[in-house]
Every structure is written in C-alpha cells, then in structure tokens.
Amino acid sequence: MSFLARMREDLEAARAHDPAARGDVENGIVYSGLHAIWVHRLTHRMWRVPPLRFPARILAQTARFLTGIEIHPQATIGRRFFIDHGMGVVIGGTAEIGDDVMMYQGVTLGGRSLEKVKRHPTIGDRVTIGAGAKVLGPITIGAGSAVGANAVVVKDTPPDSIITGIPATFRHRDSARETLPAVDPAEYIDPALYI
C-alpha cells in the first residue's frame, strides 16, 4: 500500500473515531496524532536500513517536540491507528500495535526491564486505550479489548476484555450490553462540513 493510500486510511480512521472531526483537509492540518503517525511511518521505514537509524531517531524526536507524542521508530504500528488528543503519548521501541487501534492522551506503552529483549506490549486489533493508561512490559492485550482510563496493565489479557484498575484486572465484555459504540460518529456527521 502506498504512503498516500495509508494517509487516506488514517484520515478515514480519524473521521470514524472522532465525532468532532470535520474534514480531511482540516484534520490533516490540525490533528497532531495524525502528524505523529505519518512521521512514524517514515521513520519506521528508515529504521529498517541500519545507516538511517540515527536520522530516523532525529526525525522522531523532532516530531515529539512538535506534537507532544513520542513514538520510537522501531515500534510496529498497524493500519488505521488513531491517537486522539495525543499529548503525552509514549510508544516504546519493541511495542507492536494491531489494526484499528484507538488511543487517547497520556497513554504509555512502556517497558519494565533494561534488558535488550522485547520489553514493550503487543496490542491486538480493535483495541481502545483510555486516557492516561499505562501498559507495561512484554504483555499482550487481546483483540477487541478496551483499557480504561488511568489503568496500569502489567499482565496479559484475553480478547474482548474490559481492563480497569491499578493494578488492572479484566472482565470479559458483555456482548448483550456492549454491541454499540459509546459514541456513534454517524450521529454527529454533517456532510456539509466536509471539504
């Protein structure tokens, strides 16, 4: 998939996840989460070429300065990833993020070890991570899960879990109660606002 096609997907993800999103041009100019993801896509490609690792780190740190979002160039991020109100997000180098993941401000995907091994979490597809959550260590958050705001997660969780608390515990989603999103973006979309 080309870089431009991936950017278009990211813009669609922003519209799908944020009821305040108005149009692609505006979102592309003002959404710091999108800027951080786009720079990461470039720095990640650079990271795979060893002589370009140092320039990749410089570019990543420049993006951190401009956006308030720190994503290590080594981190692996899937498609349609969206960071809403991204200030303070930190994503460590060995983190792996699946497709269709949404993350709010202040989230840390961090490590708990100083060893040169996989130290950061693996986040499954369709996971939502609430504001201020800390997901620490080489753990796995199962697909379709939701991490509550300010949770501190240090253990693996299965798919379709609701994860809350300090230290976090989980429960399985109640599919009878939780079939609809908390906010339906379609209720807020005014086609006249799109450019």
TrEMBL record:
<dbReference type="InterPro" id="IPR042122">
    <property type="entry name" value="Ser_AcTrfase_N_sf"/>
</dbReference>
<dbReference type="InterPro" id="IPR011004">
    <property type="entry name" value="Trimer_LpxA-like_sf"/>
</dbReference>
<dbReference type="InterPro" id="IPR005881">
    <property type="entry name" value="Ser_O-AcTrfase"/>
</dbReference>
<keyword id="KW-0028">Amino-acid biosynthesis</keyword>
<keyword id="KW-0808">Transferase</keyword>
<protein>
    <recommendedName>
        <fullName>Serine acetyltransferase</fullName>
        <ecNumber>2.3.1.30</ecNumber>
    </recommendedName>
</protein>
<comment type="pathway">
    <text>Amino-acid biosynthesis; L-cysteine biosynthesis; L-cysteine from L-serine: step 1/2.</text>
</comment>
<dbReference type="Pfam" id="PF00132">
    <property type="entry name" value="Hexapep"/>
</dbReference>
<dbReference type="GO" id="GO:0009001">
    <property type="term" value="F:serine O-acetyltransferase activity"/>
</dbReference>
<keyword id="KW-0198">Cysteine biosynthesis</keyword>
<dbReference type="InterPro" id="IPR045304">
    <property type="entry name" value="LbH_SAT"/>
</dbReference>
<keyword id="KW-0012">Acyltransferase</keyword>
<dbReference type="InterPro" id="IPR001451">
    <property type="entry name" value="Hexapep"/>
</dbReference>
<comment type="similarity">
    <text>Belongs to the transferase hexapeptide repeat family.</text>
</comment>
<dbReference type="InterPro" id="IPR053376">
    <property type="entry name" value="Serine_acetyltransferase"/>
</dbReference>
